[in-house]
Design brief:
This protein is an alpha+beta fold. The chain has a 7-stranded mixed sheet with strand order 3-10-11-17-14-13-12. Strands 21-20-22-23-24 form a 5-stranded mixed sheet, sandwiched between helices. The chain has a 3-stranded antiparallel sheet with strand order 4-9-8. Helix 11 links the parallel strand 20 and strand 21. The chain binds glycyl-adenosine-5'-phosphate.
Length: 439
Amino acid sequence: MSKLEDIVNLCKRRGFIFPGSDIYGGMAGTWDFGPLGTVLKRKIMNAWWEFFVEKRDDIYGVDAAIIMNPRTWKASGHTETFSDPLVECMNCKGRFRADKLGDFQADVTKLDLDKALVKCPTCGQHAWGEVRQFNMMFSTHVGAVSDETSEAYLRPETAQGIFTNYKNVVDTIYPNIPFGIAQQGKAFRNEISPRDFIFRCRELEQMEIEYFVHPDTWKENFEKILKECHDFLENKMKLPAEMIHDVEVEGADLAHYSKRTIDVEFDFPIGREELMGIAYRTDFDLNNIARESGKNMEYRDKNTGESFVPHVIEPSFGVERLVMAVLTAAYEEDTVGDSARVVLRLPEELAPYRFCVSPLLKNKPELVEKAKEVYTKLREKYGNVTWDDSGNIGKRYRKQDEIGTPKCIVIDFDTLSDNTVTVRDRDTAEQVRVEIKEL
Ligand code: GAP
């Protein structure tokens, strides 16, 4: 089995992530987070919010609506250009993203596929139709009447909810430039081929910042933000630096709004792929909004008196890809003593449970009572503590290793006389005696 399959199986078996609508045969490109996955995802999102918003004074949060006025997408260019190249196999009628059928750019044509003798991944034939652009926005209708005038879209990125609130934030908070506006939330993309677990989904979650700067300072701000993103990935998400790679995006792969983009790639089990991106969006969005809305998007610098339309640096994280990267870095199979185990070496701050508390034997009421006491105290203090009294101790350790619980605490007969417990470490499997009050 591949490492990806191992991770997918573990996620399903232990309640991290399930296929969406599984009970009805699934819904391609959607995933449901279970009890443990929800905690992991929430901790990742909270860590991002704390790092980029709460702990600094130049970035402000917003929480905008998912369904926005359709003029948003006209102004942003999504109606025209938010598309992927779609190609159909004339033999089996399978539909594919043409640029992912080989080493192609987004402007790939039928001629390129023919020249490279690309075969259909489903039927193995070489019978491509013309490549056409497929717009990935999900449309819906707002109100009781379903016609052209009521058509709206689920947002394909959280960024536009930030840009459309730029003026509201400037007029209410009066931030000094450079400043950022951050948002976390759902985005929807009708991907042609959702694939690779949660790597490419149709419903996803993003964490984005639009960082507004003076046009003359975009280069240094771009470098500053790139460095901060690495700091977050390496020191908060604890992703190994050697698994993270910066790639300069060139040519047709550059998004329609960007003058410079760095894709931060990660060594996923499916290969090296984009984890997040940092784009220099210039004044593209604010100018388009000014044109579409007739409103002035200029910022007036109180210190210099200068008025200008700010330029924007955008670090954009996808939550699912970050969850997948964290799981990839944490997943390991090793042996403890002579028994094989699966262990998730999650950073302590991200593990769904910090501690597991157990009585050595579940049929000894005095041990259970003491263990419950410890469990309740730790839960009050740390919140994320679990209880396990099933099977033997060795099995309990394996179960906790697999879900990344850093410490298991066992209450035994000695505890009753000296108030010490065994604390067993997930990574080293070492056990030490610790006084309850020291926990
Ligand atoms: N506002 C800019 C923007 O949305 P993007 O490169 O299209 O840029 C940003 O997306 C991030 O969102 C990606 O780096 C990735 O982490 C995540 N992402 C994009 N499409 C995704 C999908 N279909 N499934 C999961 N994550 C996705």
